[in-house]
Amino acid sequence: YTYAKRKKESQLVVGAADLYGAACLEHYHLLHVTETKNNDWLKRLRLPKKIVPEPEVKKYLQTLRLPYLRRPLKFSPERYPRIEVGADTMRVGKTTAVEVLAQEFKKLKLPVMTSFEDWRHNPHLKKSYKDSSLALLNSQKWFIQRKFDQVRLGAKNKIWVQDVHPEMDYCYALTNLILGRMKLAHFREYVDYFYSLDWAHVPAADALVYLTASDDVVIKRAHASLRPFETIDDNPACADRYFLVMKRVNQTWLAGTKYLLDVVVLPINTDNFNFAKNSEAKKKLAKKVLQKLAQLGWRYNGR
């Protein structure tokens, strides 16, 4: 588990060097995480100064718990590992990472099966970007049901690589609540729907590949690669805040994974790591994941 190390019995210390390659103020608030509580996450959430949730939303957030329901399966050399790919926010390279891992694993003659976000078939997605809280609710419910079905099935005789872990879907919805794009009543309905799914019997990943990026890189990539319908606001500053809030929410969830989810995290800084086009970077990404799997007991091709 390279993402964190124990310091005291009641603390989790997130390694800054592991997360970004050097200590930085950007995630200092995540360094000390209470071991067993799920109601302290709001204290760790550092929103941009201009983002102030409505009073009723802020009150609700004080009672909200983040999802840490799934558990990894016990290791067995008789089964193939499950990998999920998450990130600070959109446009950081999750889907590309899944594609690259599949390509590189196949070159090594490893059996692999990928599962992607099926956004093209989501009938509510485009409308959800037009300031419709109800469309956001329906879109997020569609995504989480689809994700539940995907993760529940997995792959029996292949390495399973999932694009976007279910908890990140939850963080998408939470981000929209905080920004006021989703009404509180609709978010409450989403939470009820999310927890109505039997997550306790759906295994977590054996390894969560978590892609990070600095704020400047997040904003640059977001503006460069947004799909035509992904317009958050006509004001670029508002769109920027959307991605930065999403990043803070995802990092806050991630900070609780060690003690509340018990998942092995492989953080990868993507600021200067172009595995989309660079062949050596593609190999390096696959090597990092295979090395992590080897630490867990799955050794492939001598790694």
Net shape: globular
Biggest sheet strand order reads 5-6-4-7-8
The CATH topology, please? Answer: Rossmann fold
What is the CATH level 1 assignment?
Answer: Alpha Beta
Gyration radius, in Å: 19 Å
Q: Detail the poorly predicted runs.
A: 1-36
Organism: Candidatus Beckwithbacteria bacterium CG22_combo_CG10-13_8_21_14_all_01_47_9
Domain Deoxynucleoside kinase: 90-292
InterPro entries: DNK_dom, P-loop_NTPase
Protein name: Deoxynucleoside kinase domain-containing protein
Could you explain how this protein is built, in words?
- This protein has helices spanning 16-20, 41-44, 55-61, 94-107, 125-128, 133-153, 166-178, 184-196, 215-225, 236-255, 257-260, 279-296; strands spanning 4-6, 11-14, 32-34, 82-87, 112-115, 159-163, 207-212, 265-269.
- The radius of gyration is 19 Å and the shape is globular.
- Helix 4 crosses helix 12 (279-296).
- By secondary structure, the chain is an alpha/beta fold.
- The two termini are 17 Å apart.
- The strands form 2 sheets. Strands 5-6-4-7-8 form a 5-stranded parallel sheet. The protein has a 3-stranded antiparallel sheet with strand order 1-2-3.
- It has a single domain (4-296), classed as Rossmann fold, CATH 3.40.50.
- Strand 1 (4-6) and strand 2 (11-14) form a beta hairpin.
- The model is unreliable at 1-36 (pLDDT under 50).
- It holds the Pfam family dNK.
- Residues 90-292 form the Deoxynucleoside kinase domain.
- It comes from Candidatus Beckwithbacteria bacterium CG22_combo_CG10-13_8_21_14_all_01_47_9.
- InterPro entries: DNK_dom, P-loop_NTPase.
- This is Deoxynucleoside kinase domain-containing protein.
